[in-house]
Each structure stands twice: as C-alpha cells, then as structure tokens.
C-alpha cells in the first residue's frame, strides 16, 4: 500500500537573531516537527536552552541541518550533541562520571545525522575531541561540497572521534544543486547554494505526493451493487485501485503535491535555489536590516531604502523587501522572516514599541508579496497545513 501522509508538520523558531543575540532573540535555530520526529535547522549558541523553554523534545531530534558554518548558526551544536547523546553528563553523587564509559555503551540505533557545508565535520570532530567529550550514541556528518571545495577528504588531519560513524558522505553538486540528500517514504530534502559572504545553502523539504481528496458518493453505487464493504474507501483514498467481484475496477483519486518548505540560511541573493523552491507552501527567509524612518530611532537622516539595501547586501544579508520579492518569484504561499538585527526586539507579543517595529517590517515585505507574511519571534510555533 502506498504510504499515507505525515499527520502534521510544525515549525518552532528557537532563535531568530542575526550576529548579536539579545534578551529577546537567541541565535539561529528552528525545529521542524514531522509527526513525532524533530529535525533542527541551524544550531546557534544556547539552542539547547531554547529547547528547554519550548515544547520540542530534545530526545526526538534525529537530524540537524546546518546552512553555513558562521558561528551564530553552529556554535550550539557541540553542547547540544553532548546533551542529546548523553555525553557530557557530569558526576552525580556516588555515581561515576557517565562520560568515562559512554563510548563503550553506545546505542547504535540512535544515530544523529548532520548535514552541513564543508568544515562542519572538522568543526564537530575537533570540538568534541579537544573537550574530551564522549557520547552515548553515534553521529555522522554529511557535507555539501561546493565545486570550489575539495571533493573528498575530511578537511582535518584529526582522526575520527570515537562516536563518529565512518559513513559520512561528501555530497557533490549536480547541475548546481544537491538533489535528494535525504529521502524516505514520506519526504525528500534537497539543498542549493544561496549567496552570502561565505559558502551557504538553503534546504528544501518536500513532502512526497499525498493522497488525493475522495468523493465517496462517486464510489458508493458500485460498492453497494457488488456488496463490497465500505471500508475499501480507505484504500481508494490512499490511491489504490480495487477490482470488484463483477470485474469493475475502481481507481482512487490521483495523489496531489505534498507540502514544500524552503528554509534559507543567510543570503543577499538566493536565486540559485529557485528551481527547487518554486510553489513552496512556506518560505523562511532572513531579513536582517530594514529602513524604518520614524520607527527605528537609529535611522540616520541621510539613510534611504537604497542606502540600507546596499549596506545590507554588502554584508551578505537581505531587507524585508528583498525577502518579499523572492517569495513572489517562487510563488510561495506564505513568508516567514527571521534572522533580525539585535535592534529589532523579539518581544512584540507583549511590548507595544517592538510590535510597531515588527508590524512595519512585515508590511515592507508585504509590499512585495501578496501572500501571508509573519515575522518570527523566539519560541513561536507555526503549523504547516496541506494546501486546499
Ligand atoms: Zn547569521
Ligand atoms: Zn552568516
């Protein structure tokens, strides 16, 4: 029987700050909750603290995708692995330090899979090794190699950490993208370069075609005539064909496209991901800086939208308008902005001043995009529905 669809897809923003975190925004990380599984996208400093404040269960994290190796996107991965894989521990009174025997009692079925740009493997291997961190379960790192990167090797002479599996792949680009870096019965993940100040990628999470909508009235006369139990409607709904006792063949409704979610890292131009990103139900795009005269008191008198856009781009980032324009180009249904300058406080649910700023940022993006725009704040959760 073809697979059913995922019961739910939900995103929880764990950190929405750019370079500097603030009391209201942590560094970049978001959790994609697929039914009961959790995949993290980026893992800035203190992501594990944010997890503790959220409803996302750390123990459910199975995969971590890193968009680029800038610290604000990866500094949190070592402590998170230590906690998630029961490594760092610490001594409990009267009990030996669990780190002492962690490496000999690994649970081989609980593997964390990490995908990142070149250097992710070396960073994790060196970080864990130099801090004498042993883990209770293994991990593996797959790297997305740009054409200008070495196409093989580990980018470090340090030998593998005792918990690092040797099966980490170096994934080579095909036609400018990395198609299907992960795939199972329900979902595929692809990646593509996006332009930033350092090698950076965006990820496209694509639910495989899901069961179509069934109209039971269309099938009932045939089922009644042949005394077929109505329970076959469930099989038809999943797209199966059923042969009735009199030879009549009933075909279920054709499957329809699943949900496509595009999660970008930092960028001043994500065009290279366009062929993979079209018709997304959700685009998550950074909006580091905005021109907000009269609202942002730091606005200088000679600042114009153009000067802010030029400055923002020169640092590898985007404005809300740039995000809105890209959402329009890919015909996205919904746009969520993240990775905000520390100037834009993330307490807009309780603070009037912050609400004004974030509403203004939203409307700048909205000026370029007809779909729904949301400014993310830390610990905000969003359900991703199947489009009607
Ligand atoms: Zn960043
Ligand atoms: Zn960056």
TrEMBL record:
Q: What does the UniProt keyword field contain?
A: Endonuclease, Hydrolase, Metal-binding, Nuclease, tRNA processing, Zinc
CDD domains cross-referenced by the UniProt entry: RNaseZ_ZiPD-like_MBL-fold
Keyword Zinc assigned? yes
Database matches in SUPFAM superfamilies: Metallo-hydrolase/oxidoreductase
Which InterPro entries does the UniProt entry name for this protein? RibonucZ/Hydroxyglut_hydro, RNase_Z/BN
Cofactor or coenzyme needed: Zn(2+)
Which terms in the Gene Ontology molecular function aspect does this entry carry? 3'-tRNA processing endoribonuclease activity; metal ion binding
Q: Establish whether keyword ATP-binding is in the entry.
A: no
Gene Ontology CC terms, in alphabetical order: nucleus
- Subunit composition and interactions: Homodimer.
- The name under which this protein is listed is Uncharacterized protein
Q: Which organism is it from?
A: Meripilus lineatus
């Amino acid at each position: 029987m073809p697979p059913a669809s995922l019961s739910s897809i939900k995103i929880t923003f764990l950190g929405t700050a750019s370079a500097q975190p603030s009391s209201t925004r942590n560094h970049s990380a978001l959790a994609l909750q697929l039914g009961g599984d959790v995949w993290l996208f980026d893992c800035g400093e203190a992501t594990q603290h944010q997890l503790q404040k959220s409803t996302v269960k750390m123990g459910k994290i199975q995969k971590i995708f890193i968009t680029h190796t800038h610290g604000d996107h990866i500094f949190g991965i070592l402590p998170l692995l230590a906690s998630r894989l029961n490594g760092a521990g610490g001594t409990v009174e009267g009990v030996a330090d669990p780190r002492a025997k962690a490496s000999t009692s690994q649970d081989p079925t609980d593997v964390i899979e990490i995908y990142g740009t070149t250097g992710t493997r070396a960073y994790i291997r060196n970080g864990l090794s130099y801090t004498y961190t042993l883990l209770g379960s293994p991990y593996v790192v797959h790297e997305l190699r740009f054409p200008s990167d070495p196409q093989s090797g580990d980018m470090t002479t340090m030998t593998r950490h005792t918990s690092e599996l040797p099966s980490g792949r170096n994934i080579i680009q095909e036609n400018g993208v990395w198609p299907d870096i992960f795939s199972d019965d329900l979902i595929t993940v692809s990646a593509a370069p996006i332009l930033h100040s350092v090698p950076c990628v965006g990820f496209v999470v694509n639910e495989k075609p899901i069961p179509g909508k069934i109209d039971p009235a269309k099938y009932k006369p045939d089922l009644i005539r042949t005394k077929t139990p109505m329970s076959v409607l469930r099989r038809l709904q999943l797209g199966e064909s059923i042969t009735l006792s009199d030879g009549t063949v009933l075909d279920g409704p054709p499957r329809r496209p699943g949900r496509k979610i595009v999660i970008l890292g930092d960028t001043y131009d994500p065009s290279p991901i366009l062929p993979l990103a079209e018709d997304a139900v959700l685009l998550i795009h950074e909006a580091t800086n905005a021109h907000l005269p009269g609202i942002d008191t730091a606005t200088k008198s000679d600042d114009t939208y153009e000067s802010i856009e030029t400055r923002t781009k020169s640092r590898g980032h985007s404005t809300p308008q740039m995000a809105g324009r890209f959402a329009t180009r890919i015909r996205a249904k919904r746009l969520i902005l993240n990775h905000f300058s520390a100037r834009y406080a993330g307490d807009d649910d309780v603070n009037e001043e912050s609400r004004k700023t974030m509403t203004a940022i939203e409307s700048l993006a909205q000026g370029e995009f007809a779909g729904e725009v949301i400014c993310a704040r830390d610990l905000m959760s969003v359900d991703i529905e199947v489009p009607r």
